[in-house]
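Support request, priority: normal
Reporter: lab tech (M.K.)
Component: structure prediction queue

Hi team, I submitted a job for DNA polymerase I from Roseospira visakhapatnamensis yesterday, and the status page still shows it as pending. I've pasted the exact input below so you can check whether something in the sequence is tripping the parser. The sequence length should be 945 residues. Please let me know if I need to resubmit or if it's stuck on your end.
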Amino acid sequence: MTAPDTTAPASDATSPDRLTLVDGSGYIFRAYHSLPPMTRPDGTPVNAVYGVTTMLMKLLADMDAEHVAVIFDKGRRTFRNDLHPDYKGHRPDAPEDLVPQFPVIREAVRAFNVACVEMEGFEADDLIATYARQAREKGIAVTVVSSDKDLMQLVGDGVALLDPMKNRPIGPDEVREKFGVGPDKVVDVQALAGDASDNVPGVPGIGVKTAAQLITEYGDLDTLLARAGEIKQPKRRQNLTDFADQARLSRDLVTLRDDVDVPAPLDGFGRKAPEGDALRAFLMDNGFKSLLAKVEGTLIPTPGEDQGAAPDPLAEARAAEAAYTLVQDAETLRAWVAEAQAAGVMAIDTETDALSAMRAGLVGISLAVAPGRACYIPLGHRAAADSGQLDLDGGGGGGTIDPGEAPRQLPLDTCVAGLRDLLRDPGVLKVGHNIKYDLHILARVGLEVTPVDDTMVLSYVLDGTGQGPGGHGLDDLARRHFEHTMIPFKAVCGSGKAQITFDRVPLDQALTYAAEDADYTLRLHRLLKPRLLDERMVAVYETLDRPLVPLLTTMEQAGVKVDPLVLRALSRTFAQRIADLEAEVHRLAGHPFNIGSPKQLATVLFDEMGLESGRKSAKTGAKSTGADVLEDLAAQGHDLPARVLDWRQFAKLKSTYTDALVEDINPDTGRVHTTFGLTGTSTGRLSSNDPNLQNIPIRTEEGRRIRGAFVAEPGHRLISADYSQIELRLVAHVADIKALKDAFHHGADIHAITASRMFGAPVEGMDPMLRRRAKAINFGIIYGISAFGLARQLSIPRGEAQAFIDAYFKEFPEILTYMEATKAEARQHGFVRTLFGRKCWTPGITDKNPNMKGLAERAAINAPIQGGAADIIKRAMIRLPSALTEAGLSARLLLQVHDELILEAPEAEAERTAEVARHVMAGAAALSVPLVVDTGVAPTWADAH
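Reply from support: The job had stalled in the queue. We restarted it manually and it finished. Here are the results:
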């Protein structure tokens, strides 16, 4: 491929700004293998045609390029076969039922009025490379819609790739993740590693990883081959010498031609609206009635439709009147399925008999296909017992049932069969509010749901935790955006001792309550989704948070194995330690008292023992016995407060972890299943609840012993992959601190380097106390630590602590510049952004109360760092499953604990799994400092960490 002409003139006034080139052949095979067999009325197979058509519809609806073309392979033989007769020679023939679909797929492209290009003797990739070069020389930005690794050599200099199945952009970072080098060196790596699928020979014994190392070290293939005699490994040296010509041949095979005399001009790719009659005829001929319903009024106007201004989504969502329907027979269900397919977007919600997603039973499903247009499908309702007395306002259909009457509802298997194809139809978007819960419930009855959107996550991405009153619950959002009060749960199920489960709610009341949830979920989606583009949050939602929804669902379903015997033994040990400490505290006090009572403890400490504390509880005005007060008293040498702190620690470990975790073990799986929250933090970090597995203490020996109860299944191992000092690395990157960046690049002890620069002490033989002080400041700076806080942490006078902080800023002035700039950004906008564009809101940044303002300023300083770290590990999590699959590994991701991922793998695959995890995590972001990942493999979490 020729080098780009960097002196080419910019685009003239009539040139297009953006060009989309679609790898049509890649579309075909992805569509064929992802969809079940389908035939049109004349018996012609059309599953690949249907898949390509839906993908093309989505592409045209989403993209903003002025020019577009779909590029296909013309035939199997190309100029590369003249170079190497066996090139792609062992590839099997196309499946028999796919062959007749090839010409129909070309018809589909033309029916959408999109340019369709192919050429004998060249692959689609060569045509794409040529058009990309031509466009680049005219100053036109190019997006190549494909995930083909061979096209990654084109990335950069105005050319980007987009994976259409994962909706994931592929830039230089993703190329480095795949090949270990940048796009400009991909050809050299491929030439060395070869490609068995295409019969590209490469050099024996050299894979992609080794090839990347060699090219990185020697610069390019020619230099490497010329200096092959320098290679230390005898076998590798001999192979590079013996197979040098084979490597050069392989380079010729994998290099894309960008000088093809293409059959159609670039300026003929202008985007045109489809001819309505032609597109309708194509869709009808192939039996794609549901697709026709989607394009009517969008890609093509409905005949006779008034093409006025686009409706206001808020006004439309508010104005729609509710019309809810009970679905109690198969025919009505089929009608709703057809309506959902025609709509292309639907909301779904489940009703259950319990709150736990892993233990709840399915009671019913609600669907919404338009604002106000929703239904409820009852499945698990029982006789109403005495619950018919509850009164509801609101519309809806269905008759009230008398107490004791068995409700009429669909059999579960009939409902599952009726919904299965709809819920996995790639052309129908399923929207839920906290849809992760619904995915759990539906999966247990055999229903897969894809693709999905989540209005709770949408709201969080747009408004964070600092915008508007309330949270991101459906009730809060309906009230905030639509001034609508949702039916409260207690209105249908009661409260207190009289509360019933949802399966005992009469159907008329269940209908109104359940259908309203789906209805307002859809209304929210219509309101919130367009804001992503307007507020520049598409990338955060589509590449960071939305892909995590199904991934976290899978992780929650997997759970983690916990050994109850270990936990019970620890509980007994902790109980004895608590008893011993209680006796010791009573001895020191001179009498028994309730250690858990703040009032009684305050009496002992401040009245009887005469200890001094100026702090009082904000709530009661009584003298505080909080941990900070007890720590101060203990630091002054008082034994009783120190023993009370120990007592509290053991009591918490026992009640919160060793006792509770045994009760949290799911009897069906033998594992503990946490619930990960995507919307609970201001920085984008995930939370963990029911139980919280992110707060198990690791700084104490007792906390580490609790992690020892988390074990792998027999024959398996746990893998811990943990980012090393990621937040300090982000500080060095975002604040551009040269000294710290140099230290990270050289793998130096960052705390010793900091101490050396601050205190003038040599790194070798450094006093551990100096290093400890530097470490406290390094980490404290991230959280905006004050002189008072540092003084408490290091047990030094406040003046000395302030001197340390002043010395730090003098030695690293870049960090102070970053802090001031970040606070100014927060004051101007009300939020700060992470490296990846996430908004972290900073309420209180302009508060007149100096304490509130200071708190907000410290949060603003920390948010881009902690939020950036959260985004990076999310990127790694999203990429990891496909990387494991590509490596032929069966490991599964179990937990995310801040900067650490926990996986479980068969023992024979454990080390390789750790290697893949380390590679993916290290490549999750391109920083000016290296990302380092520590991995461990062991039978327990404690030993792996």
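DSSP finds 38 helices and 23 strands in the chain. The longest helix spans residues 850-886. Let us know if anything else looks off. Ticket resolved.
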